[in-house]
Amino acid sequence: MQIDSLALGRHAKVTSDVYIDFPADENSAPDLAILREDARKEGKRYSLEDILLISEVVSTSSARKDYDDCTAKYGRYGIPIYLVVAPYAGKVVLHTEPTANGYSTALKRAYGTGRLPIPLADGRTFTLDLDELPRPEPETDAH
Predict the structure, then answer these.
(1) What global pTM score does this model have?
(2) pLDDT value at position 136?
């Protein structure tokens, strides 16, 4: 995923596959998380209060989890922004305004439609370049 590091700052805390503690729930290791600049690891984990944005990249085997389960879970725990990147569908879904059941706002954008600036709760902006997102390789016929 292409990240505009200038917008986030040189010392931005962007992590992938690091465990996040969710109270009374199983821990998660999202594909990408943007953390507050002052976030501190507690052992090998970060607290959910440190999270500004979580993103999951959908695969054919994880579609239900990423679209349904994670949307409900991250919203329920108040994660400000949940970004679903769906290479097979060629789109992203930006969830904002967390609720007890998920998110009240979902913005869909297609791959190849320029840059998507995403304002974070701490005043920085995460910019996703929709023209640079990887697409799955087409399957070839082995005949």
Answers:
(1) 0.84
(2) 83
